[in-house]
TrEMBL record, chain A:
InterPro entries: AA_ABC_transptr_permease_3TM (IPR010065), ArtM/GltK/GlnP/TcyL/YhdX-like (IPR043429), Ectoine_EhuC (IPR014342), MetI-like (IPR000515), MetI-like_sf (IPR035906). GO terms for biological process: amino acid transport. This is Ectoine/hydroxyectoine ABC transporter permease subunit EhuC. The keyword Nuclease does not apply. PROSITE patterns: ABC_TM1. It is found in: Cell membrane.
From TrEMBL, chain B:
The keyword Transmembrane applies. GO terms for cellular component: ATP-binding cassette (ABC) transporter complex. The keyword Nuclease does not apply. This is Ectoine/hydroxyectoine ABC transporter permease subunit EhuD. GO terms for biological process: amino acid transport.
Length: 249, 216
């Protein structure tokens, strides 16, 4: 493999993958918090609409959604999305739906007395959410979010099907140029693995910080447990997590 | 551009072919992932680190890298090694192996969730290892893992459209083919999108019902 191929395809491809991950993760986080909090709203209609959103976007496939946004939206409504944004929208909306379940689960796991204390102190619903519920729920969300983020990173590879020049598209082009499939595909798998590893360490640092904010201890050392996925130590708890988030996280 | 029901009708023959291919891929992929995952899970319980370590590294690598790239790896690299499969078989193998690293985690959690007292009772009754597994541990572990496995089957279903990358004509592949033939993408792609929800949503309700019945 020549340096030209690296400079023109692989390195820009990695950059595109990173950008896609960051933008989709930002959109997914916004959707997850918005929809997840709406699912704990006191109005039934709000809860229903939020539930409807999660079922639809968890029900359909991210690949199909991406193709739909790319091919159908322009024809049906007359606006053409730049491929990159069609991809970000599809990834953000579908992974946001998975994230919404995580947010809802974490909010529900905050002790009821905490919410009641907020009511007793006549906090407004938004103050309760912002000052009482979220600070306690967020550390709980981070391990499943970390798993989802890695799934999202893996999901960005799908954009190569739409011709966006990300890492896996670069691998495809390099394969055409060099005819060395094993080498370039092994390299690109390693690239994805390294990115996933970096993301998982970043999320662990974030978990330590959010836990420290509410005075809870966290496990020591970022390199202590080298596994990328986070799971509970309790096996029953782990099975419940595997089932509840639709398997993805 | 508006919706045209006759285009939906024209797509249906191809659509049903696609549904069959998709379901075939999910069924065979599930069987492979259930079987290989069990092998990983037992290998990971091996008494020696010489086995545990490589198994841990390999499964972690497969689980945290994109299925699409693995699909291309299988599709382009296996023939170079002299192993030739059809595109569909390659896809089924890739998705089966990818998801086996998830089912492995499910089996591990299922086995660990069996209370230690059950192991101790089996030892106290001096049951042979084989009996301990078949009569005590597995019957309790399997109940717990069925819902989680079901969820991965649904995830697998939602990942089969990736096969379009290696030219398999599952649902999405058929929709793209129809679009290329008739220049109408709206109806085929929408039908396929709705079809995924129509299959996946009842399946997820079934998994939730199973969870209520089987877990505790």
């Amino acid at each position: 493999m020549t340096t030209g191929l690296w400079q023109h395809w692989v390195l820009p491809g990695i950059w595109i993958t990173v950008q896609l991950t960051v933008y989709s993760a930002a959109l997914a986080a916004a959707v997850a918090f918005g929809v997840g909090m709406a699912r704990t709203h006191h109005l039934r209609i709000v809860r229903f609409l939020a539930g409807f959103y999660t079922e639809i976007f968890r029900g359909t496939s991210a690949v199909v959604l991406m193709f739909w946004m790319f091919f159908v939206l322009p024809l049906l409504f007359g606006w053409q999305l730049v491929p990159m944004w069609a991809a970000v929208l599809a990834l953000g909306l579908s992974y946001g739906a998975y994230g919404a379940e995580v947010v809802r689960g974490a909010l529900n796991s905050v002790a009821t007395a905490q919410r009641e204390a907020g009511v007793a102190l006549s906090f407004t619903p938004w103050q309760r959410m912002r000052l009482i519920m979220l600070p306690q729920a967020v550390p709980e969300m981070i391990p499943p979010f970390s798993n989802l983020l890695i799934e999202l990173l893996k999901g960005t590879a799908l954009v190569s099907l739409l011709g966006i020049a990300d890492t896996s598209f670069a691998a495809y082009l390099v394969r055409l140029a060099t005819q060395e499939s094993a080498k370039i595909y092994s390299i690109s798998l390693v690239i994805y693995f390294v990115l996933a590893f970096v993301l998982s360490r970043g999320m662990r640092a974030l978990e330590r910080k959010t836990k420290a904010n509410i005075g809870r201890p966290s496990e020591p050392g970022l390199l202590r447990n080298l596994s990328l996925r986070r799971s509970s130590d309790d096996a029953d708890e782990r099975l419940k997590d595997l089932t509840e988030t639709g398997g993805v996280a | 551009m508006n919706w045209d029901w006759s285009a939906v009708g024209d797509f249906l023959p191809r659509f049903w072919d696609g549904v069959l291919t998709t379901l075939e891929a999910v069924a065979l992929g599930s069987v492979i992932s259930f079987a290989v995952g069990l092998v990983w899970a037992f290998a990971y319980r091996a008494p020696t680190r010489l086995v545990r370590w490589p198994v841990g590294v390999v499964t972690e690598f497969i689980r945290n890298t994109p299925l699409l790239v693995q699909l291309f790896f299988f599709y382009y690299v296996l023939p170079e090694w002299g192993i030739e499969f059809s595109a569909l078989t390659t896809g089924i193998l890739a998705i089966g192996v990818h998801y086996s690293t998830y089912t492995m985690q499910v089996y591990r959690a299922g086995i660990e969730a069996v209370p230690p007292g059950q192991w101790e009772a089996a030892t106290a009754l001096s049951l042979p290892t084989r009996r301990t597994w078949t009569a005590v541990i597995l019957p309790q572990a399997i109940r717990r893992v069925v819902p989680a496995l079901g969820n991965y089957v649904i995830s697998m279903l939602k990942d089969t459209p990736m096969f379009i990358g290696i030219g398999v004509l599952e649902m999405l592949g058929q929709a793209r083919l129809q679009g290329a033939d008739t220049f109408r993408y709206v109806e085929p792609l929408t039908v396929v999108g709705v079809a995924f929800i129509v299959i996946a949503y009842p399946a997820s309700l079934l998994v939730r019902a199973l969870e209520r019945r089987l877990v505790r």
